[in-house]
Specification:
seven-stranded mixed β-sheet, 5 helices, 7 strands, globular, disordered C terminus
């Protein structure tokens, strides 16, 4: 996909699933955040039941690990604009942003973040719900270099050089 020509999707995702993050996933996000030397995070999620549960699970795991969550914001799955939500999310300027939620809402939010804010994918971690190649394609891998996340099993993934990569697992973990 070429650079974004509009912040809005032409049509919703055909695979809009509402996945709930697993405990392994939340723990892996905490590990990734620590490897990036984060102390503060800002969590953004869709408003579906599983997205909200996932955000809470991540916030709890991060708090138990000694991290600070600056705030949690939610965004709609459909709407006319995600500008207000994107502006609030980016304004917090945490060490890292963490995102979860169904594909269509996440893609709309992320496209708006890229279009209108200083948000950067390389300062962002995401859940397995977002790490699906079809979901990432809604925004375009070319626009997401540096975005990292975890699978439901706790292994990591990374968008690098416009491709989705699954770094080799080491004995120390993902």
């Amino acid at each position: 996909m070429d650079p974004l020509t509009s912040p809005l999707l032409k049509r919703p995702a055909s695979h809009d699933t509402d996945l709930k993050a697993t405990t392994a996933e939340a723990e892996a996000i905490v590990r990734l955040a620590h490897t990036r030397r984060a102390h503060t995070i800002m969590i953004g999620s869709g408003r579906t039941p599983h997205a909200l549960e996932s955000a809470h699970l991540i916030e709890s795991a991060w708090g138990r690990a000694g991290g600070t969550t600056l705030a949690t914001i939610t965004w709609p799955e459909t709407g006319a604009s995600w500008l207000r939500h994107a502006s609030r999310f980016a304004a917090a300027n945490p060490d890292l942003w963490v995102m979860t939620g169904p594909p269509t809402g996440w893609a709309q939010m992320t496209r708006r973040l890229l279009w209108s804010t200083p948000w950067r994918p390389e300062r962002t971690l995401a859940t397995a719900a977002i790490g699906d190649p079809r979901t990432l394609a809604l925004v375009g891998l070319i626009n997401l270099n540096g975005l990292a996340g975890t699978t439901a099993h706790g292994t990591s993934w990374l968008v690098e050089d416009d491709t989705l990569q699954y770094p080799a697992r080491t004995q120390e973990g993902p």
